[in-house]
Amino acid sequence: MEEIKLFCPATIANVSCGFDVLGLCLEQPGDEMIIRKSSSPGIQITKIVGQDLPLENQKNVAGVAGLALLNELKELHAGFEIEIYKNIKPGSGIGSSAASAAGAVFGINQLLGQPFSAKELILFAMQGEFLASGALHADNVAPALLGGFTLVRSYNPLDVIRLPVPAELMATVIHPQLEVKTADARSVLKHSVSLKNAITQWGNLGGLISALYTNDYDLLSRCLHDEIIEPLRSVLIPGFDEVKATALAHGALGSGISGSGPSIFALSKSKSTAKEIASAMADVYRKFEVDYDVHVSKINCEGIKVL
Amino acid sequence: MEEIKLFCPATIANVSCGFDVLGLCLEQPGDEMIIRKSSSPGIQITKIVGQDLPLENQKNVAGVAGLALLNELKELHAGFEIEIYKNIKPGSGIGSSAASAAGAVFGINQLLGQPFSAKELILFAMQGEFLASGALHADNVAPALLGGFTLVRSYNPLDVIRLPVPAELMATVIHPQLEVKTADARSVLKHSVSLKNAITQWGNLGGLISALYTNDYDLLSRCLHDEIIEPLRSVLIPGFDEVKATALAHGALGSGISGSGPSIFALSKSKSTAKEIASAMADVYRKFEVDYDVHVSKINCEGIKVL
């Protein structure tokens, strides 16, 4: 195989009660990437369509992640060209950088005959995330690479668990075109939390994981709360409270901030409910005269796909 | 039915990463209780064998829990006599009060034709726990009533989830005859925890719950850590570090404080390993010249049993 074309999906990190550990993969939106073998060693990003992002290797998450893989493999003579067709907007909070970082390592790994497992690829993709956010986090790249829901149990060593997905689960995501800098979203966090809130949070995360294994949508709904991060970060997202309340009023199982925002997600049990939620969420931002993108998607159980 | 004889098992609360939410039920040790209908209304504790505990209703967890049930049912004319044969030592940290409180409500519910579900009985049994510890906690009474592993997701309203049990899982519990007052065990806790430690804890609890659903003993083992409570409480239990290290050296999947101590538990994958751990743990306390009881038990998937 000389060339591969990929679909690299958006992802929702945290999912309310799973700050820094939980993530899920979407069917839509997603980027496309073409990766091909090249005679010149290293990685060359030859084209980026749809967004104004740097082509230089060391400034692009795909380049950094891909080079991390090649360095580990000591494939110093291998060369790859990468084209990126961005549909996921950077800064939207649905894993734009993760899609590119994960896509690069997935594609290169395929073209090299799969020397690494999908779980091993997470480590390389995390290097791309480090460039994007200054933190080695895996809660977007893990679901992008493995699909479904993922739990990053530990970083040291990396321990990622693939969780099952209830078949009817749908996601709605609205991206208001407001800028929330990841640095701001980080700076509002407190270094300590009350033991009481922490207990509530781990009770909810435990319940949510049980719900995923038992297809218990009611339990899932009861667990989709975040008493720790959401109260701090939601103030950075104008309209958050109203959008969330609207989603719940239209049948969402739960709603919260996607990653560090500003996108807001809602989970629901059917496509028609998910669409209704999308329309109701959009009404809120139209009223506020804020531009938005809205997405309705099944949970993507495969992750990155070869097209 | 006029009379019922019950086996009321010991339980392990917290189970390392699940402070205040997780509990599991043991096959051994356990109390026996005889509960019979009586012509005089209310509850009379007529006999307690094995421990010096108060017979007065309002001072005994079984009386308080039983009356909570009768009050809810408005069965003001119903009367019951209770005999308690204690094998679980009060203050041991393996749910002695929970066994009595849960046993009382389970037995009375049976004799009344089961007006309440097992989950509903938890609320009444918690009233007994309130008498014993000053807190309305359910992490011992829930596994005593439901069996297996239980997750108390929320108290307001009460939301308890029954979790599956990997078939080969065994518990070893050593009870050093040292007094750790529940009040002391509570007073060493801090009101706040670092966000970093909280994330580690909910990652581990999430992983542990996944491990229970997938019979993944390795994952279970990786998750049996407590970076929040154990470092604070273990200093109240002389020999804790050595007992825990010994259990792990003899093949335990994990080891920690049972409830608020002083009992120390270890989980393992086979009866022979569980017995070996018991003998090694006992050696430590023999060396320290501390008396102890040691128990080896399967996980009890039924909870309280009618004998």
UniProtKB/TrEMBL annotation, chains A, B:
The enzyme's E.C. designation: 2.7.1.39
Keywords assigned by UniProt, alphabetized: Kinase, Transferase
Domain of life: Bacteria
Enzyme class: transferase
Name of the protein this chain belongs to: Homoserine kinase
Gene transcribed to yield this protein: thrB
